[in-house]
Amino acid sequence: MISMAIHSHHPDARLVTPAQASEWLNAGWRDVWRNPVLSLGFGALYAGIGMGLFLVLNALEMGSLLFPLAAGFMLVGPLAAVFFYEISRRHETGEPVGLGQVIGGVSSRLDQIGNMGLVLSILLMAWLLAGLVVFALFYPPGMPLPLGNFLEDVVLRPGSFRFLAAGTLVGGVLAVIAFSISVFAMPMLLDRDVGVIEAMEFSVHAVRVNWRTMIGWAATIAVLTFFGMATAFVGMVVALPVIGHASWHAYRDVMGEC
């Protein structure tokens, strides 16, 4: 049975400005090179998984599934970034930053991180199911297409705009939900002894009071992730660590000393 501690109060979020996003990215870049083997190692691991999945889907002539899966990765991104958060947290506190210490730090909060991961996984499953429904509505056979055929069909097919609009609408709604509940919740679970509900409440509150800045920050994350994937996942080796470390610094600015 999943245990989620419920609290009626969460810390107040500090206001942050769009200009601070560049500071977060700079801080994230510095954190990457403070321990490049560890940060880039995790980045290479995730990039390798992405490339492997792409090759498998291509071999099965199901390359069109790459797009919903790539969008799905955005939903669970904060879970994948948990090791980068822990590395940055340890740099900040002066604790040892080695592979064992980082894994140990994450493991010490594995119960609540796992609960948060379950919430994000449910959203991911909802997105994949919705994506299959949208695909089936616009492609009668209901079978995923090879990537080349899919791209050609999207460009040339008369009804492709409605297909893209439907997919974007459904994915956008789920992305807003996932981003709002997790962007600050996952770092908070590592930083403080709180439950998932309290962490999600704080994250939603922080996004709400900083919604203009968060729109830009979400777009920045999306662009960097797209760049990483568009370079045959090679760019993900660097993009993911920078995003992960930068997101920690975004959390610290929003949390402050409260």
Automatic annotation (TrEMBL):
It comes from the Bacteria. It holds the Pfam family DUF2189. Keywords: Membrane, Transmembrane, Transmembrane helix. The chain crosses the membrane at residues 37-59, 65-85, 118-139, 159-185, 215-243. This is Integral membrane protein.
